[in-house]
Amino acid sequence: DWSSDVCSSDLSDNLPGSPSVGAFLVRPGNSNNILIGSGDTGRYAGTGMYKTSDGAATWHPVYPTDGTSWPSTFQKILTDLHDPSGQTVLAQGDTGIWLSTNFGDTWSRVYSGPSSDLVQDPVNTYIWYTGVEGVGVLRSTSYGQFFNPIGSGITGPIGRVSLAVSASAPEHLYAITAITNSNGLSTSLGGIWRSD
To answer: Which of 21, 104, 105, 114 shows a CA-CA span of 20 to 30 A to 61?
Structure first.
């Protein structure tokens, strides 16, 4: 229940671009800084990423600075747990993963290709994983700089892949796969998997 004593301000009133939001991140230690990635998978295309540094009084678009283009939808924007300043973030969308070291002012793509989820190992913070349709799981052991396939053992049709890592047992990666239709929408469960 979103009662008025809990949420009293609509921070999206001044948000330009697509009203469809796929992911957002509030900077730890400074809630005036927020990133929003637009787009909703299988429903509405987005118009890029937006940032506010004044608590949503104003928003402005931010862009990749390496010549790449934003995906049509975002699924995740995450703070890098390895960076105590909270400046390093990774954004994952349907066509890749981008990295910023200044909380979204500049971005560069670190993985180009389909992607449906992004998680960081909460203990071994140099390790990141991304789910990839048709492949399974890619892993980075370079603080999110490079991603490579791992032998996940996932079989059957691999549609959307969602991932989770537990701090109590980071040696295990969990994956849920879905069978998707031609529009990219999940139609049935493909399987639930755990790495050993």
So the answer is: 114
On whether the CB atoms of residues 80 and 90 are closer than 8 A, the answer is yes
Structure tokens at 160: 């959307």
Contact status, residue 149 vs residue 135, Cβ threshold 8 Å: yes
- pTM score: 0.86
What is the layout of strands, in order, in the sheet containing 128-132? 117-120, 128-132, 136-140, 148-149
CA-wise closest residue to 39 among 81, 74, 1:
74
Q: According to the 3-state scheme, what is the secondary structure of 154-176?
A: CCCCCCCEEEEECCCCCCCEEEE
- For residues 110 and 147, the answer to whether their CB atoms sit within 8 Å is yes
